[in-house]
Amino acid sequence: MCGERTFVKRPGFIFVVLLSATFICPIGAIAQHTPQRVIIDTDPGTDDALAILLALNSPEFKVEAFTVVPGNVVAAQGLENALKLISLAGRCDIPVAGGAQHPLNQKLITAEYWHGQNGLADIELPASKCKADPRFGPDLIIELIHKYPHEITLIPVGPLTNIALAVSKDPSIAGLVKNIVIMGGSISGGNVNGAAEANIYNDPEAAQIVFNAGWMVTMVGSDVGERTLMTRKELGQLQSTHGPENDFISKLGEFYLSRGEKNGYSGAAMYDPLAVGIALDPTLGTLKEMHVDVETKGEFTRGETVANRMGANEKNVLHGDHYVIEGYDYLKPNARVCVASDAPRFLQLFISRIQGK
Amino acid sequence: MARRTFLIDTDTASDDAVALIMALRARDVNVAAITTVAGNVGVQQATRNALYTVELCGARVPVYAGAEKPLLRSHENATWFHGADGLGDHNYPQSSQRAGELHASDAIVATVEANPGLVLVTLGPLTNVALAVTKRPDIASKVSRCVVMGGAPCCEGNVTPAAEYNIWVDPEAAHIVMRSGLPVELIGWQLSRGAAVLDESDITKILGFDNKVAQFAIECNSQARLAYKEQTEEDGIALPDPIAMCLALDPSVGTSWSEHYVEIEASSELTRGMTVVDRLNVAGDERNRLNWAAALEGSKAKICWEMDVERWKERLLAALR
User: Fold this and answer.
1) Neighbours of A240 (CB within 10 A)
2) Phi and psi, residue B149, nearest 5°
3) Which helix (H) or strand (E) segment is A112 a member of?
């Protein structure tokens, strides 16, 4: 990834950086000519709406499909919301497909508390002119990855149910995507409880499947989203300009920001849009390679993304009646964990893409 | 007699092959499709074994390959029991038929849609069925019976003290299937033990039929017989999958059945894959309600506790004659 910061020391690293510097960095300049193909898997959702409209207004991207997963709202509401958003952006050419109806192994937990009864801040968007694609979301993901091998960036910003179903049905897709950037998890406390972030908490089994599918997951967690806040200042910028999408986001931002303020935040956490931002420009985040597993069992920690920051587990060997530490077992990283964001630059990018639209 | 339609999901190794033979040779049964899953052996080997068995029986049944591994866990095979190729390593040739294009989970959906009311028989881990009902929850109500070889509802397991192999390998998938609304009939491993094991005289009788299918049924279980003796100290061929098929073909061979809520343990490592059966029907009691709430919303499974061993063996021998 161009300009990606990683702190893992290994011999291949220097080569990768040189290669990136030589071949990949100029992408910034040619982005307009070769947009990145992306699929967004979403449970819209207020911040999903921000993410979707950011993606649709970014020339770096060619959005190949939206797939909808239950999460913030139930599956049917999510599909309706996605279709309305795509219609608002005038992009009925992009397929929008439904997917799983519920998490793999547990009941769904919806978040109307945060997102409004309809999931979109109770703003009534006009009826969608777009029609849902009849394909099953996970099958559409598989189909598109095979159609464009090594070109698709998956951006799941909801529970990982659809992605888990896709990679369980066809494990080969893990080696055929260009990248996968998720909004989910946290390596420093959750937003649901002490341990877990909402997307992972809503389907921990699916998340564990996705983290261990064999691809490098770029993880943009709630801990970073909560430090990437749209404040009154940025909202004011958006409210000073107009356009159908711009005006919708101004209203939605007002709801989302007030809800955040009521709950002790000084702004609106840009969870999902930040994942889209980091997919389009990885230098907006500080990424560190780690091995991440998802706790699926703990009474207090179910749904926690457990990140190994030292790249190893102590090796304990049984000697007689007790264990003795004999060095380390090294772990292969499976994730690039975003540990910080360049919030001001991201927010200005977001505003610039939405203003006047 | 009107022909019944069966759909069989299998991790085809030695006892699966015998179960397939029973279904393929049942005159009143149309096997609409066979789907394969990673379990006893890898999914490619299972597919090859299923195709070979179909060809040996002179049947024309489509075979579809499915999941390469359990949903969440790494794949743990049972080649120590069934042999490296799952069929006792006798170098059976490759079938001239090939697997169909569809993924097994889609083949399950399509076959159920085309044959509402069919009988689904599962002989392996439940990964394919879990994927199918997750994609299309509505198929559950179109299956008349879902006969599952799996679990050890009363007793010790065959892979851990708590769990039977098929459920243990993919407990998350089993959990999905138990919650799916499929009308599950659970045929536990323990039914294949003791008097149900084919002893020397049964084996001699079968080999005396002097046909290639009967020969194959015994020969492909050579490694399994040795492994079973090591595991249980019982001598003979234990056939859990054919017993499930026998009960799918004729439920009256089961002499004691009852319906209960069943939970699959997926959180504990010690009891991973245990089939926890509410045999005393206490799941709804105040002290149990919290842990059993989700199961109580679903449907009960039918558990077979005992069977008529003589009739089981008659049924098997009739299929191999």
Assistant:
1) 10
2) -80, 110
3) helix A112-115
Q: Residue B15 in contact with residue B240, Cβ under 8 Å? A: yes
Instruction: Choose, out of A168, A203, A296, the residue to mutate when testing the contact with B (most B CBs < 10 Å).
Output: A168
Which chain B residue has its CA at the smallest distance from A210's CA? B72
As a whole-number percent, the residues of chain A with pLDDT over 70 amount to 91
Tell me whether A101 touches chain B (CB under 8 Å): yes
Q: What is the mean pLDDT of residues A292-320?
A: 95
**Is residue A23 scored above 60 in pLDDT?**
no
Asked if A105 lies within 8 A of B105 by C-beta distance, the reply is no
Q: Which residues contact residue A346 at a Cβ distance below 8 angstroms, ignoring those fewer than 6 apart?
A: A228, A270, A274, A277, A284
3-class SS letters over chain B: CCCEEEEEEECCCHHHHHHHHHHHCCCCEEEEEEEECCCCCCHHHHHHHHHHHHHHCCCCCCEEECCCCCCCCCCCCCHHHHCCCCCCCCCCCCCCCCCCCCCHHHHHHHHHHHCCCEEEEECCCCHHHHHHHHHCHHHHHHEEEEEEECCCCCCCCCCCCCCCHHHHHCHHHHHHHHHCCCCEEEECHHHHCHHHCECHHHHHHHHHCCCHHHHHHHHCCHHHHHHHHHHHCCCCECCHHHHHHHHHHCHHHEEEEEEECEEECCCCCCCCCCEEECCCCCCCCHHHHHHHHHHHHCCCEEEEEEECHHHHHHHHHHHHC
Which residue of B lies nearest to A204 if distances are taken between CA atoms?
B72
Q: What is the DSSP letter of A133?
A: B
Cβ contact B131–A136 (<8 Å): no
Size of interface A-B (CB pairs under 8 A): 41
Question: Which region, left, alpha or beta, applies to residue A129 given φ > 0 means left and ψ of -120 to 50 means alpha?
Answer: alpha
Instruction: Kindly state whether A138 is in contact with chain B, defined as any CB-CB distance less than 8 angstroms.
Output: yes
A107 close to B (CB below 8 A): yes
- Which contiguous run of DSSP H or E holds residue A223? helix A222-225
A17: tokens are: 């950086």
A:186-245 residues touching chain B, CB 8 A cutoff: 205, 208-209
Q: How far apart are CA B321 and CA A152, in angstroms?
A: 56
HSE-CB for B233 with a 13 A CA cutoff: 0
At residue B1, the pLDDT reads: 60
pLDDT at A7: 39
Measured between CA atoms, how close is A209 to chain B, in angstroms?
Answer: 5
d(CA B253, CA B236): 21
Residue B180, C-beta contacts closer than 8 angstroms, at least 6 positions apart: B129, B130, B133, B137, B140
Q: What is the pLDDT of residue B2?
A: 76
pTM confidence score: 0.91
The answer to whether B68 contacts A205, with C-beta atoms less than 8 Å apart, is no
pLDDT in the model for residue B229: 96
- Tell me the pLDDT band of A31, cut-offs 50, 70 and 90: very low
Q: Do B103 and A208 touch (CB under 8 A)?
A: no
Contact A236, A11 (CB under 8 A): no
Q: Count how many Cα atoms sit within 13 Å of the Cα of residue A86 in the half-sphere of its side chain.
A: 27
